[in-house]
Amino acid sequence: xxxEFFHQVLMALGRxxxxxxxxxxxxxxxIARQLRSALAHTTIAxxxxxxxxxxxxxxxxxLRDLDMRFALLPQGDLSRADLSNSVLxxADLSNSxxxxxxxxxxxxxxxxxxxADLSRANLSRGRLDGAILTHAVLYNAGLMDASLTSAELxxxxxxxxxxxxxxxxxANLTSADLSRANLVGANLSKAILSxxxxxxxxxxxxxxxxxxxxxxxxxxxxxxRETKWPKNxxxxxxxxxxxxxxxxxxxxxxxxxxPGERRRLA
Length: 266
Hints:
Blueprint: H1 2-13, H2 31-38, E1 42-46, E2 51-55, E3 222-224, H3 231-239, E4 241-245, E5 248-251, H4 262-265
Antiparallel strand pairs: 1-2, 3-5, 4-5
């Protein structure tokens, strides 16, 4: 299994080449020679217990359908790479560049993506349960139908991201930036959104049952009759919202009340 994984990585890396040159295919009997000429700046190491790929440049690499669990790729440049359907369970991708990467249906459960740049990445249907995304940049990322249960997203940048029907139950979004994010139909039950910036986000049909919203900025948040707010702020939010079209409302105030202020502001 491990030797097959390494062979797959070598084959995939063989498709990385300058845009002006045609793709290079690596045959098993010419791996060393072709790696020297085509991937002079890429270092690949193999350990019996874990595959370690230390790339300086994997931009645009085609790495689909690979088993890369526990792979070590910190600070790697995988921008515009295609990792669709690959398994990166528990992989280390901290501080990596994954902007514009294709990660459709990719298994990133428990992966370390701390401070990774995932701007505009396609993570639709991705599995990021338990992943570490602290301080990660997910600006304008596609996360439709993605699963992020219990993920660590504190201080993450999720501005204008597409989180339609995403499952974020129990996720930690403390101080995260969700401004203008599309969270239609998303599940944020039991999520921690303390001090999160949610200005202008679309929460229509979203579920936030038992979510924590203390000091969250809700100015301009859109929501619908189907939206489920935490019981402790539901009446306050209704009172601070204006119906902008039939069944659709918009919050006008900025911060939800502190627990001791609920009765006074309701």
